[in-house]
């Protein structure tokens, strides 16, 4: 399982990019994890699924609300990662007003979740293999903080916790 001090696993996440110039939709685009994190501080939070109750009511809204404070604390980008396709993540991002604040990164086949070892098997509930709920700060692709939730909990992966950790790293 991924731990503090580890390099983020190699791989690709997909993001639904709304427009490219003149309002032309360009759809899902792959982003190499190592290239996208090089030289940056990234706040990453992962969750079981788009449009699910805790994720929609608390997790994403908290990061949208704290985006400016996180950036002031030295965070270059905020990523929400979920085992959903890029189209779903794009639609959910529009619903959650994440534009310019949180990048909605799709891990459609759970490759990133599996590579981190932070998976949650929700097959019995009809949702298949998902990501566990967690948050982390990655600096130049290396995990500096990691807050993994116990199943069914939302106590340590919230935006306020990660903001305090970002401020501590910057100090």
CATH topology descriptor: Glutaredoxin
In sequence order, what are the helices and strands, one letter per element?
EEHEHHEHEHEEEEH
**Strand-pairing-aware structural class:** alpha+beta
Helix content: 25-40%
What is the typical, i.e. mean, pLDDT? Answer: 93
CATH architecture title:
3-Layer(aba) Sandwich
Description of the structure:
The protein has helices spanning 33-37, 53-65, 67-72, 86-96, 111-116, 159-170; strands spanning 12-17, 27-32, 41-47, 77-82, 103-106, 119-122, 128-131, 134-139, 142-148. The chain is of the alpha+beta class and 171 residues long. It has a single domain (12-170), classed as Glutaredoxin. A seven-stranded mixed β-sheet has the order 2-1-5-4-3-8-9. A two-stranded antiparallel ribbon has the order 6-7. It is globular and about 45 Å long. It starts with 11 loop residues before the first strand and ends with a helix. The mean pLDDT is 93.
């Amino acid at each position: 399982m991924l731990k503090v001090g580890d390099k983020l696993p190699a791989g690709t996440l997909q993001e639904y990019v709304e427009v490219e110039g003149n309002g032309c939709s360009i759809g899902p685009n792959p982003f190499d994890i190592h290239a996208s994190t090089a030289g940056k501080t990234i706040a990453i939070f992962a969750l079981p699924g788009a449009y699910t109750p805790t994720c929609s009511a608390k997790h994403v809204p908290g990061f949208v609300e704290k985006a400016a404070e996180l950036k002031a604390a030295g965070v270059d980008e905020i990523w929400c990662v979920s085992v959903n396709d890029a189209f779903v993540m794009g639609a959910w991002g529009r619903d959650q007003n994440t534009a310019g604040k949180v990048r909605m990164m799709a891990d459609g086949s759970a490759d990133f979740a599996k590579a981190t070892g932070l998976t949650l098997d929700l097959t019995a509930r009809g949702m298949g293999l998902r990501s566990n709920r967690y948050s982390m700060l990655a600096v130049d692709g290396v995990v500096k903080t990691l807050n993994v939730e116990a199943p069914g909990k939302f106590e340590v992966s919230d935006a306020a916790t990660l903001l305090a950790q970002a401020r501590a790293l910057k100090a």
